[in-house]
Write a structure and sequence with these properties.
heterotrimer; A alpha/beta (194); B alpha+beta (90); C alpha/beta (390); A: 194 residues; alpha/beta; Pyruvate-ferredoxin Oxidoreductase, domain 3; 7-stranded mixed beta sheet; 9 strands; 33% helix; B: 90 residues; alpha+beta; Alpha-Beta Plaits; 2 helices; 4 strands; 22% strand; elongated
Chain lengths: 194, 90, 390
């Protein structure tokens, strides 16, 4: 069934750079979850927005109404949009034992940083996917929606829910290309053996 | 921090309170010294004071502190002789 | 009805559009800005014929709303923190002139130091003026209560303006699934605009001239208080009407969660009530019977409903996200004043926490709840009436 349906609440932290769309990714995930009769809440790191800076965004996906409003300190899942931020930030900080990481990676190898116990690593080459579909803005590959596609697969959500969410939040050419990117990432995400 | 001490909303400016903000860059400004006329306008406009300036007597010599430069490109915009290039980093 | 994922701020914008507001005037300030940005988008896309008046300050924003509302139009503004403080003079004018209008306050702490996170000092600073003040727990409640406020404020028994308060970021910028009612539902719910007088061009009418009889002026002040007291039954009635149309009842002035057999109550207002609910579930798991008294309306303060909810309990913990410095938290002050005058003597303790946006979650409420039970069991009363946590 997947994580989203097994646990009471799944807490997710997105890592990226300001401007990469981590907040939109969190929003889109919750929109897709709603389409599977799940509840959710998505929120940015509360503070000034800083283009290029390492940023985080958060989401909770739950079978019940999400009542808590506090910050996520012990995520079940971390999503890394840009591997470069791993040089500056410990993306595994606070991750639960048995937690899951979804990393945008071209090499599909384990990250060089020390892994906390029990964390399962999944990778997808979202940058390649974005470039293949021409999803580039101001020189940046737009990987955020592809990463939601990969994440949705790991959470056990249907691809159709993600595509509906993409079309609800985006429109026109952006919706079309991002739908295709999400679909490919949904198919291509793999678990890296430790 | 004790509850009963006088806590004031004061701080002193110091280098790097936001961390190594150079990691935010996606493009980096590079000075072409063969074109630079040493006017110091980039130093004046840099919003984060990451351009260092040295008075060599006849003119200024400027250099960029890449540990903290965020790559905003304001120096590149204001340079009157186009002596700064923005070079892709990410 | 559409089911969408929206931020609290976008819920306000949708509610304003659905209420067929005619004039919006505001000045940008974090974390309010995205309300008016969204309204501006809706105007731009042609989906509403609202007029946006651009101004140079919050003082002028509310002045523009005041003018439009006085001229007979449904009008709206939104602000936060320092913007609200700058607007403060006009906040008095609108209420004392008995002009219905609606304002969203995205609650944010006040400097120095500069800080954009939530606490309730800004909205609580407006509670003595004559505005109805409601605080939301979820984005759905933000949307529903904003629509309802237009009906409540324009009721002839009330004729006072109203504030919808929503916590900075933890509601304003958090996305949640929300049911957005159809326009026909809102149209059937909201009557044509009503107000005590309309100032029209070509018809001489002076509002606010120097009073010739100070007793008349005195009675005006008293009347504002009476209007707010009348609002209690209007709020309860409107909550039922909205519930019939949408299936969403909130309990009117207050909501009780697991109160029926509770020995102890948490009382508080705003987004963190959600965390209090989880804490109550967890405390009950270890045999401590807690409930939540959610204060939905700060003004009018729901004395009678609070009295009924609190009577017979072993103790009440009142959480304030602001403090009347030198006294205690404002919700605690209101609540204990009425309990005392009703002759009720039970341990009521004030915990002031979450100031300056300090993050508070259900684990904190569990901890505070346990320690309160110990305090009351050991001392038979409370050892201090006000604690700061942590």
């Amino acid at each position: 069934m997947g994580l989203a349906f097994e646990k009471e609440v799944v807490e997710i932290r997105f890592h990226g750079r300001g401007g990469q769309g981590a907040v939109t990714a969190a929003h889109l995930l919750v929109d897709a979850a709603m389409r599977e009769n799940l509840w959710g809440a998505a929120f940015p790191f509360f503070g000034a927005e800083r283009r290029g800076a390492p940023v985080t965004a958060y989401a909770r996906v739950s079978r019940r109404v999400v009542s808590t409003k506090s910050m996520i300190k012990k995520p079940d899942v971390v999503v890394v949009l840009d591997q470069a931020v791993m040089n500056y930030v410990n993306v595994f900080d606070g991750i639960k034992n048995g937690g899951v990481a979804v990393i945008n990676s071209a090499t599909h190898t384990l990250p060089s940083t020390r892994l906390p116990a029990g964390v399962r690593i999944h990778t997808v080459d979202a940058t390649r996917i974005a470039l293949d579909f021409g999803l580039v803005l101001a020189g940046w590959p737009l990987v955020n929606i592809a990463m939601v596609g990969a994440l949705a697969r790991i959470l056990g959500m249907k691809l159709s829910s993600v595509l509906e969410a993409v079309n609800s939040i985006l429109s026109g050419r952006a919706a079309e290309l991002n739908s295709r990117a999400a679909e490919r990432a949904y198919r291509e995400v793999v678990e890296v053996e430790a | 921090m004790k509850r009963d001490e006088l806590i004031l909303p004061l701080s002193r400016p110091k280098v790097g309170v936001q961390g190594t903000t150079g990691s935010w860059r996606i493009r980096k400004p590079v000075i072409n010294y063969s074109k630079c006329i040493g006017c110091g306008i980039c130093w004046l406009y840099c919003p984060d004071s990451t351009i260092d300036i040295e008075d060599t007597g006849s003119r200024f010599r400027v250099s960029i502190d890449y540990t903290y430069c965020k790559g905003c490109g304001i120096c590149w915009t204001v340079c009157p002789v186009k002596a700064i290039d923005m070079v892709k980093e990410v | 009805m559409a089911r969408l994922t929206l931020t609290g701020n976008h819920c306000v914008a949708h509610a304003v559009k659905l209420a067929r507001v005619k004039v919006v005037s505001a000045y940008p300030i974090t974390p309010q800005t995205t309300i008016v940005e969204k309204i501006s988008e809706l105007v731009d896309s042609g989906s509403t014929n609202m007029k946006i008046i651009r101004v140079e300050s919050e003082h002028s924003a509310l002045a523009a709303v005041y003018g439009a509302a006085t001229a007979g139009l449904r009008a709206f503004t939104a602000t936060s923190s320092h913007g609200l403080l700058y607007m403060h003079e006009m906040v008095w004018w609108v209420a004392q002139a008995r002009i219905p209008a609606v304002m969203a306050i995205v609650t944010r702490t006040i400097g120095p130091p500069w800080n954009i996170w939530t606490d309730h000092h800004d909205v609580m600073g407006q509670r003595d003026i004559g505005w109805i003040i409601t605080m939301a727990e979820s984005n759905q409640e933000v949307l529903d209560e904003t629509i309802k406020l237009f009906k409540i404020t324009e009721d002839p028994e009330v004729f006072l303006p109203g504030i919808i308060g929503l916590d900075a970021f933890i509601l304003s910028h958090t996305v949640e699934p929300v049911e957005v009612p159809d326009q026909e539902i809102v149209d059937s719910f909201l009557p044509e605009r009503r107000q005590p007088y309309v100032i029209k061009s070509g018809e001489a009418l002076v509002m606010g001239n120097v009073p010739s009889d100070l007793l008349v002026n005195f009675r005006m002040r008293e009347g504002v208080h009476r209007g707010l007291r009348n609002a209690e039954k209007v709020i309860e009635r409107v909550d039922l009407e909205w519930g019939k149309l949408t299936g969403r009842h909130y309990g009117g002035l207050v909501e009780c969660y697991r109160c029926e057999d509770a020995d102890y109550l948490f009382a508080g207002a705003g987004a963190w009530v959600g965390d209090m609910r989880i804490a109550v579930d967890k405390l009950r798991d270890i045999g401590l019977r807690f409930g939540v008294l959610k204060i939905r309306y700060i003004r009018p303060f729901p004395y009678s409903r609070v009295f009924e909810a609190v009577r017979g309990r072993k103790g009440v913990l009142v959480f304030d996200r602001s403090i009347s410095a030198g006294s205690a938290g404002p919700i605690f002050l209101d609540l204990t004043t009425h309990l005392y005058s009703s002759g009720l003597r039970i341990p009521v303790k004030n915990v002031v926490t979450g100031l300056a946006g300090f993050d508070i979650g259900y684990e904190d409420f569990v901890k505070i709840g346990k320690s309160f039970v110990n305090e009351v069991s050991e001392s038979g009363w409370i050892t201090s009436f006000l604690d700061f946590y942590p």
